[in-house]
């Protein structure tokens, strides 16, 4: 890791925390810490996305990537202050459901007004052009920080998150293929084929939310086969597909494979461009996949 880059990140962090007013004991509120205020704000946002219904505390934890013990203490303080309601899920005693109270909503409105005023105060001294550059730079930083928060892990193909990604993948294929997509007409990828030692399935997650997947099937001494590579549309442009491909190729290399193969449909032009850029070359068909138009191989020497 480059020492200069690490120093630059630390310098940026110092600048941002000072500019945001996050160095005081209370942020936008004399009674609550920055962490507690953010938990309350994110909780309200999550509840609103669920139509106003209380949400599982786990969703807040995943969204903010917080330590469970720390989050429990913050929630207890918010509940004691009357800003948050908490109850055991009647359908699952292991889960706790939370939602902001009316007092919590009123406090959030105060936060929003004060936050708007703080942001406006930072923009006011700048020219119109400088404001536009600052906002654009913030967007780029936000995008890159989102990319750095994505984790890729091996999962069982029958987990809920894995199945969610596969359903989203099939739905997108059905939308993009000229003839639609019927998974029952495609060559099957059975769970046991992408479960060790026969293969592997990888999941990409951002703050606990599954945003991509990819699988690898081993074929003995023959090239390994990459299957079901997908990235959520909202996460594209963050390099998630490249990272999934890197990891799948590394897994194949570690297993002693000298090459990897894949097939794809002509409508997936972005994926085809990525494969070619990574050194994949077109080869004769090696499967009878009815939806495939191209077959590719990459040497792993």
Description:
The protein is α+β, with helices and mostly antiparallel strands and 301 residues long. It has 2 domains: 3-125, Orthogonal Bundle (Arc Repressor Mutant, subunit A); 150-299, 3-Layer(aba) Sandwich (Aminopeptidase), CATH 3.40.630. The protein has helices at residues 3-19, 34-49, 57-64, 68-80, 102-123, 128-148, 160-176, 240-254, 269-277; strands at 55-56, 84-89, 92-100, 150-155, 199-206, 209-219, 222-231, 259-264, 281-282, 294-299. A hairpin with a 2-residue loop joins strand 5 and strand 6 (209-219). Helix 2 crosses helix 3, helix 2 crosses helix 4 and helix 2 packs across helix 5 (102-123). It is globular. The model has no long low-confidence stretch (mean pLDDT 91).
Secondary structure layout:
Blueprint: H1 3-19, H2 34-49, E1 55-56, H3 57-64, H4 68-80, E2 84-89, E3 92-100, H5 102-123, H6 128-148, E4 150-155, H7 160-176, E5 199-206, E6 209-219, E7 222-231, H8 240-254, E8 259-264, H9 269-277, E9 281-282, E10 294-299
Parallel strand pairs: 7-8
Antiparallel strand pairs: 1-3, 2-3, 4-5, 5-6, 6-7, 8-10, 9-10
Give a quick summary of the entry.
With 301 residues, this protein is an alpha+beta fold. It folds into 2 domains: 3-125, Winged helix-like DNA-binding domain superfamily/Winged helix DNA-binding domain (Arc Repressor Mutant, subunit A, Orthogonal Bundle), CATH 1.10.10.10; 150-299, Gcn5-related N-acetyltransferase (GNAT) (Aminopeptidase, 3-Layer(aba) Sandwich).
């Amino acid at each position: 890791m480059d020492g200069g880059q690490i120093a630059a990140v630390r310098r940026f962090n110092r600048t941002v925390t000072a500019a945001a007013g996050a160095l005081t004991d209370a942020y936008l509120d004399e009674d609550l810490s920055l962490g507690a205020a953010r938990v309350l704000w994110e909780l309200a946002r999550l509840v609103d996305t669920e139509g106003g219904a209380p949400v599982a505390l786990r969703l807040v934890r995943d969204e903010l990537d917080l330590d469970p013990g720390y989050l429990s203490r913050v929630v207890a303080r918010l509940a004691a202050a009357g800003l948050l309601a908490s109850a055991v899920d009647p359908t699952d005693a292991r889960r706790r459901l939370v939602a902001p109270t009316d007092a919590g909503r009123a406090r959030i409105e105060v936060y929003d007004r004060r936050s708007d005023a703080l942001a406006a105060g930072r923009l006011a001294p700048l020219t119109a052009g400088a404001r536009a550059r600052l906002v654009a730079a913030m967007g780029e930083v936000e995008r890159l920080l989102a990319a750095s928060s994505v984790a890729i892990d091996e999962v069982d193909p029958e987990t809920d998150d894995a199945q969610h990604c596969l359903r989203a993948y099939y739905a997108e294929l059905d939308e993009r293929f000229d003839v639609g997509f019927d998974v029952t007409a495609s060559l099957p990828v059975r769970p046991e084929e992408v479960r060790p030692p026969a293969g592997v399935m990888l999941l990409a997650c951002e703050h606990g939310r599954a945003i991509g997947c990819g699988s690898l099937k081993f074929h003995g001494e023959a090239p390994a086969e990459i299957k079901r590579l997908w990235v959520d549309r909202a996460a594209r442009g963050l390099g998630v597909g490249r990272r999934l491909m890197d990891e799948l190729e590394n897994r194949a290399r570690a297993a002693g494979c000298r090459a990897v193969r894949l097939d794809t449909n002509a409508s997936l032009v972005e994926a085809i461009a990525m494969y070619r850029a990574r050194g994949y070359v077109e080869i004769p068909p090696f499967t009878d996949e009815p939806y495939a138009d191209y077959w590719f191989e990459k040497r792993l020497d």
